[in-house]
Amino acid sequence: MLVVWNPGEERGALESAGVSISIFNIVSKVFNIA
After folding, report:
1. CA 19, 28, 32: angle at the middle one, nearest 5?
2. CA separation (Å) from 25 to 5, 15, 16, 19?
3. CA–CA separation, 11 vs 18, rounded Å?
4. How far apart are CA 32 and CA 34, in angstroms?
5. pLDDT at 2
6. Which domain of life is it from (predicted)?
């Protein structure tokens, strides 16, 4: 497999990972309050 570093894709992956972490943090806070 040829891997070519693409700053756009890298940033998109990091942003989606950040969104997933944010959602996980919100859900965990809700369960902690409940």
Report:
1. 155
2. 30, 15, 14, 10
3. 10
4. 6
5. 64
6. Eukaryota
Tell me the pLDDT tens digit for each residue of 1-34. Answer: 566 666 677 777 778 888 899 999 999 999 988 6
What number of other Cβ atoms are within 10 A of residue 21's Cβ?
10
* CA gap 4, 16 in Å, rounded: 20
The CA distance from 34 to 22, in Å, is: 18
Q: What is the largest CA-CA distance in the chain?
A: 48
Q: List the structure tokens of 3.
A: 């891997």
State the pLDDT at residue 34.
64
